[in-house]
Amino acid sequence: MTPIFDVIIVGAGSVGVPLSMVLSMRNIRVLVIERGHSIGQGQNKTAIGGIRATHSVPAKIKTSQISLNIFSTWQADYGEDIHWQKGGYCFPAYTSETESNLKGLLKVQKSYGLNIDWLGSKELKNIVPGINTDGLLGGTFSPDDGTASPLMSINAFYNMARKYGAIFKFNERIEKIIMRNGCIYGVKTNKQEYAAPVLANCAGAYARELGKLAEINVPVFPESHEAGVTEPVQPFFKAMVVDLRKTLGVENFYFYQNSGGHIIFCLTPENTISGTNTISTSEFLPIAAQRLAGTVPRLRNVKIRRIWRGLYPMTPDGMPIIDRVREIKGLYMAVGMCGQGFMLGPGAAMILADMIMQSPPSLEPKLLESFSLYRSFESAFEKLK
Ligand SMILES: Cc1cc2nc3c(=O)[nH]c(=O)nc-3n(C[C@H](O)[C@H](O)[C@H](O)COP(=O)(O)OP(=O)(O)OC[C@H]3O[C@@H](n4cnc5c(N)ncnc54)[C@H](O)[C@@H]3O)c2cc1C
User: Fold this and answer.
1) Does residue 182 contact residue 328 with C-beta atoms inside 8 Å?
2) Contact call for residues 354 and 360 (beta carbons, < 8 A)
3) In the CATH hierarchy, which fold is given to the domain comprising 87-144+222-314?
4) Which residues contact 180 (CB under 8 A, 6 or more apart)?
5) Residue of 43, 177, 307, 332 to test ligand 1 pocket, by largest number of atoms within 8 Å of CB
6) Cβ–Cβ under 8 Å, residues 24 and 164
């Protein structure tokens, strides 16, 4: 007999797992199908753990605020430590152009309730002791942002989803989406068939491939980014520092020190690297090491322990797609999270769960237009990608 569920979610990643948690907590019978051998084996485990509501677009600000509320209260509410650290986000400015861009965003950010301000270079030095002050003009600081462990977080959400009855199938790949009379009927994996009237595409970097099974164009294109972690050193700062200076090969560079003392860092390469290759490049380590030592010179003797390369599931305008597919009844998606799927995951899950259940929306309908599958994808790229 074909097992029957209310909702099938494709992908046990940064979005799929919190979605399974939110839906099962609302008494929905959920099945999650994941081709990896456990949760978080897609891009969730490549994320460095940054969680900020400091964006330039209202819909993203609001979605991240929903997420922040979940991450920051998780331990108090459920007793499980996800290594949440309320260290804030700091965007230092070393050029007057960056200063005016960052100051220009403050108005919209504050109007959506963000706790953020411009600080002078002396105050920034207190937040990041040892930061290079040559040419430092000041920067923005948003103390309510923070970081958490992607591994601990996804495990916590998984445990909660299972407690409320969600079923997970690993090592199973969706091969066919079954439809009847323009409605979702179920899926066929490499192992068996499952039935449900609702299917949620949370397939991350592979969302486009999944969309093709239903002949729906999902404009998500993977590009790769690299990250690394140092040996632990005495904790001396908590903020995520986003250094927007462009240097040879680097579009921007960001890093923080986690509660274990490790510095975790990541950079956006000057030239986009499209595709799904995740073998570390030879350029990354020397460039990132130089950049880290240049931004906080006291880190120059710290050893880098490990580097890795993962994928950003990108959309053409840098905004996620969280929507219902109009052409096929029962098909939904929360995909195209770009470089922010870990932080957006729980918020995106709440928004999609509202759509699926036709509950009052967590986000104003006007703001939801920014996440529509049917938008033009031509608007200017988000400024704080
Ligand atoms: C170096 C690096 C650093 C990053 N740092 C951050 C950060 O600090 N903060 C942040 O918010 N984000 C960060 N990100 C981005 C973040 O990792 C992604 O945006 C996020 O993980 C995407 O979530 P997702 O659920 O869409 O995809 P995933 O987490 O990849 O989940 C999708 C899942 O779907 C499964 N799947 C796909 N197709 C199928 C199929 N046909 N059948 C069954 N299963 C399928 C995959 O195996 C995968 O497990 C970073 C990314 C990189 C590469």
Assistant:
1) yes
2) yes
3) D-Amino Acid Oxidase; Chain A, domain 2 (3.30.9)
4) none
5) 43
6) yes
Predicted TM-score of the model (pTM): 0.97
Strand 250-257 with 240-243, pairing = antiparallel
Return phi, psi of residue 19, to 5°. Answer: -65, -40
Closest residue (by CA) to atom 2 of ligand 1?
47
Map residue 354 onto helix, strand or coil: helix
∠178-182-188 over CA atoms, to 5°? 5
Say how far apart CA 382 and CA 228 lie, in whole Å: 25
For ligand 1, say whether the CB of 20 is within 6 Å of any of its atoms: no
Q: Is residue 320 lining ligand 1, measured as CB closer than 6 Å?
A: no
pLDDT along the chain (385 residues), means of 10: 97 98 98 98 98 94 97 97 98 96 94 95 96 96 98 98 98 97 98 98 98 98 98 97 94 96 96 96 95 96 97 97 98 98 98 97 94 91 69
**CATH of region 7-49+151-219+317-371, choose from 3.40.640.10, 3.40.50.720, 3.50.50.60, 3.90.180.10:** 3.50.50.60
